[in-house]
Each structure stands twice: as structure tokens, then as C-alpha cells.
Amino acid sequence: MTDRATTALRVLKLRRSDLKRCAELEQLLFPGDDPWSRAAFAAELDQGHFYVGAYEGEQLIGYAGLAVAGRPPHAEAEVHTIGVDPAHQGRGVGKAMLRALLARADEVRATTFLEVRTDNEAAIALYRAHGFEIVGLRRRYYQPSGADAHTMRRPPLGAAAETAEAGG
């Protein structure tokens, strides 16, 4: 058995001690689009946003963050970031973190929004599989590259069923 086979993926609240690693991963993942610094991640935590880390053993291999505003029935959430170490992509790490973010959004019945590069087909497929739909286009959203982004939206879990039951 390999270490990878015996080391379980854990998604936990992001630790401040991992912010340096988050910034390192940002440099790998988003070199042409103004990657976040350690200070930017710290500011997100200081503002009370919900961040998780994906860990294999003690190694941080991914991070994801969500902001929630308002209260039900008008709560909204925004996925601020999801990043996975390139050596661990394609193994469900991003999916596990997205599910943790969506569970938090669903706790307050928040409609969830996000932006995703229009050329990131893997991420778009992941988001569609979790109930997101494209609702807009933001031209030149990512800087300095100038890449476009889709705005995507997902209703809170159970919202469609509740609307149907209410006759809406």
C-alpha cells in the first residue's frame, strides 16, 4: 500500500498556520492573475469568512472560502476561492471542499454565487454537477490576464422543492 492509499483526505476549518502554504499554492495556481498573499488570506479569516483546508495527513493540499451575507430568506453566499495543489487535482479534493462550502451556505438557506474562468471547463463541470447555472459573463474579470469569467448561481438546497410546494 502507498501512503496516498492509506492517508485519508480530511476537510477541516483552515488553520492560520497554513496561510503561508495557501499563498504558495496561489502562486502555483494563478501566476498570471494576481495571486493572493498570506495577508489576503489572513484578512479573509479576520472578516469572519468560512474557510476550509483539505489535508492529507498534516499536509495542506487545498483551500476554499465562502462569504455569507444576510439572513434567511434573503441570505446570499459567495465562493471566494477554491484551490487544489496541482499534484492532487482530479482526485475529488475540490469537490470535497465545495461540498463543505455548500453545506455552510445551505445552513442559512443562502443562494450561492461564484465566478469562474470561462476556459476552466473542469471547474465549470464541477459547479454544474452541484446545481450551479451560468447567469452572466464578466468580461476581463481576472487581472492582469484579462480573462473572462462566468458568474454562476446555485439556489439553496431544497429551495426548488419548497417553491413548488408553495405553488410558486
TrEMBL record:
One of its GO terms (cellular component) is ribosome. Residues 9-153 form the N-acetyltransferase domain. Keywords: Acyltransferase, Ribonucleoprotein, Ribosomal protein, Transferase. Gene3D superfamilies: 3.40.630.30. This is Ribosomal protein S18-alanine N-acetyltransferase. The keyword Transferase applies. Residues 158-168 have a biased composition (Low complexity). CDD domains: NAT_SF (cd04301). It holds the Pfam family Acetyltransf_1. It comes from the Bacteria. Residues 147-168 are annotated as: Disordered.
